[in-house]
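Hypothesis: this fold can be encoded by more than one sequence.
Test: take the structure tokens below, design a sequence, compare later.
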């Protein structure tokens, strides 16, 4: 048994509780807020949250606009002009800037 499992068992953490990144937790909170009917607006993130393409995509899928801090090494492009996912080894994980 791995050390992590032993620590979880000792601490009484239920097996159904799984690790989630803070970006995954944030997206779940946004979904919950939208489903609860809370008013939407613009999602603002720092560069650590902004680096996560799944979070940015998920915010857009929720019908929200976002402003994300990005690291200086992040590729950005206008919608429809950047590399596509899977194209020549690219992940398609750059940020899209609005026109």
């Amino acid at each position: 048994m791995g050390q992590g499992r032993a620590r979880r068992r000792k601490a009484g953490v239920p097996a159904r509780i799984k690790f989630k990144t803070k970006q995954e937790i944030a997206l779940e909170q946004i979904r919950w807020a939208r489903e609860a009917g809370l008013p939407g607006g613009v999602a603002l993130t720092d560069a650590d949250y902004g680096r996560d393409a799944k979070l940015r995509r998920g915010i857009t899928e929720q019908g929200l606009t976002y402003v994300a801090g990005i690291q200086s090494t992040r590729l950005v492009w206008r919608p429809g002009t950047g590399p596509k996912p899977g194209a020549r080894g690219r992940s398609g994980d750059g940020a899209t800037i609005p026109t």
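Helices lie at 3-11, 22-35, 47-50, 53-61. The CA atoms of residues 36 and 52 lie 25 Å apart.
Hypothesis status: open.
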